[in-house]
Write a structure and sequence with these properties.
Number of domains: 2
CATH class of the largest domain: Alpha Beta
Number of helices: 11
Distance between the termini: 50 Å
Shape: globular
Structural class: alpha/beta
CATH architecture of the largest domain: 3-Layer(aba) Sandwich
Largest sheet: 7 strands, mixed
CATH topology of the largest domain: Rossmann fold
Number of strands: 10
CATH superfamily of the largest domain: Vaccinia Virus protein VP39
Radius of gyration: 20 Å
Helix content: 40-55%
Length: 281
């Protein structure tokens, strides 16, 4: 049984560590998600877990935050942003970056790797010339467990069935038992690192594209504003920011504006000279 005081202690911890705001309706979720953590540390109640944490077991705090971090993801999630990436964003950046031949892409909530690997496969399929550039795909997440799965590149049948086109499964994956291993050439295109979006950020190169999809929805408005402000310092003036379908910069950061393509969820810094970009709705 999760008491009110223990629930409040857990959500305060999660808010401080990860910026995630857990509402009063998330009590059952917390109780359910923490059951494996209780077993892992040999206790039977959340109160015992918190006492053990406060007695000096710092690993427990990390595991609590990790357990309450949503890692829902799939290959080519929502489809439309990847279409815009293929038809508008990458062609434009190929033209603009032709002299420097350098391109930096950041997936800032990479979870178990399906998003950055989708980008890597899209590049191999449609822009193989970028493989001769100084191309960097950085994928970060707060969860070390999720990143361990991502680095391994080994997915279940259900995971490859969700969003991955069959031709890409045949071309880039090999069967290992009842799971599928992603080709090493694709895995080596992506660098995975632990990064907490509400904590200190390491030095990052100027980014041409940032995928910050389906993570802002878990933060309150002030935290969203801080993250978007920090993204402006990382994104190049003519770069692109992709958000999730339920996310927006509207009323949060007026230095961004929509790209103007229906359902793209793509934004750019304002006051940048640009050509009109149009794809079908």
């Amino acid at each position: 049984m999760l008491t009110g005081s223990d629930f409040n202690a857990v959500r305060q911890l999660v808010r401080q560590r990860a910026g995630i705001a857990l509402g009063d309706d998330k009590r059952y979720l917390v109780e359910t998600r923490l059951r494996p953590v209780l077993r892992e540390f040999g206790v039977t109640t959340v109160a015992d877990l918190l006492r053990k944490m406060n007695a000096g077991c710092r690993e427990i705090a990390d595991r609590i935050v990790e357990a309450l971090t949503t890692n829902e993801t799939l290959f080519f999630r929502d489809a439309r942003p990847f279409e815009v990436l293929r038809t508008v964003v990458l062609p434009e950046l190929l033209r603009k970056r032709a002299a420097e031949r350098r391109l930096n892409i950041w997936c800032a909530a990479a979870s178990t790797g399906q998003e950055p690997y989708s980008i890597a496969m899209l590049i191999r399929e449609h822009f193989p010339q970028l493989l001769q550039w100084n191309l960097k795909i950085l994928a970060t997440d707060i969860s070390t467990a999720a990143l361990a799965v991502a680095r391994e590149g080994l997915y279940s049948q259900l995971e490859v069935n969700r969003g991955l086109p069959a031709p890409l499964l045949v071309k880039y994956f090999s069967k290992e038992g009842n799971r599928w291993r992603l080709d090493r050439r694709v895995r080596e295109m992506v660098e995975f690192r632990v990064l907490n979006l509400v904590g200190p950020w390491p030095p990052l190169p100027p980014m041409d594209i940032v995928f910050l999809r389906n993570v802002l929805i878990y933060f309150d408005a002030p935290t969203k504003q801080r993250i978007l402000s920090r993204m402006r310092t990382v994104l190049r003036p003519d770069g692109y920011l992709f958000l999730g379908s339920a996310e927006t910069t509207l009323h949060l950061d007026d230095s961004f504006e929509p790209l103007g393509i229906p359902r793209s969820c793509c934004y750019r810094p304002k006051a940048v000279s640009r050509r009109p970009a149009v794809v079908g709705s």
